Amino acid sequence: MDLPETTFLGHSTLRLRMGGRTVLTDPLLTAAVGPLRRMVPAVHPAALADVDLVLISHLHADHLHLRSLRLLPRDAEVVVPAGAAGWVRRRGVARVSGLAVGETRTFGGLRVTGTPADHSGHRWGPRLTHGPQADAMGHLLEADGLRVYAAGDTGLFPGLDDVAAQGPIDLAALPVWGWGPSLGPGHLDPSGAAEAVRRLAPKVTLPVHWGTLAVTGLCSVPGRIGGRMRELLVHPPHEFAAAVTAAGLPTRPLVVEPGARVGATV
Fold first, then answer.
1. Which tens digits make up the pLDDT trace of 216-232?
2. Where are the transmembrane segments (predicted)?
3. What is the pTM of this model?
4. Using only C-alpha atoms, what is the Rg of the chain?
5. Best CA proximity match to 217, nearest among 233, 232, 229
6. Strand order of the sheet with strand 213-215?
7. CA pair distance 125, 98, nearest whole angstrom
């Protein structure tokens, strides 16, 4: 089957060509994000030159990364969760607009629908009440007879069945880990992501949100802690793919390294 031109740039960043648009999801492009260090090669500037649409799933700094947004063409439209556009605009992003969960907008030949997610929507974390807040979301992209679901950050939630009910999904990009030795609420691990595949029934699934970031210095710590972190930079997508296969699901899992392009035909 054919897929949109897709490159996994690391963490939750996908570069997609659909409907005549070049789209980035949750661009994370710098060598560091706060205390987190990029563990894979930097994104080549050529991958960014023609980006004209950016989809942000939620406000956490490893998804709405202001320094990365400033590396993109200034005429790229940045679409953030509804209610956050003013906060982002005041921080120097030239073109920014909002999208609500359940809302559909058209960008040229591309339709984008905001989908629910089970994840904190607060900029600074789930336990704070001050500062910017907007619902976390995923995105359903439709163009050229193809449908792509980019889940953003999420745990399992009943609304996944509603996403699947909107029509067959050709490619589902699902998070399978994070950037640390453990996961908090509102995240998928390999087995949870495999359950999401069972509910969504995509033709192809691409594991994301793995292998890209780690706390500075943690991978070099001797003993069990450092060893576990080094393993977590590699193992989660393969555990996910094995779980999908072991469950006998018809979905084809594709594991590609950060920076690699997904084959146009699989």
1. 999 988 888 899 999 99
2. none
3. 0.95
4. 17
5. 229
6. 32-33, 36-38, 213-215
7. 21
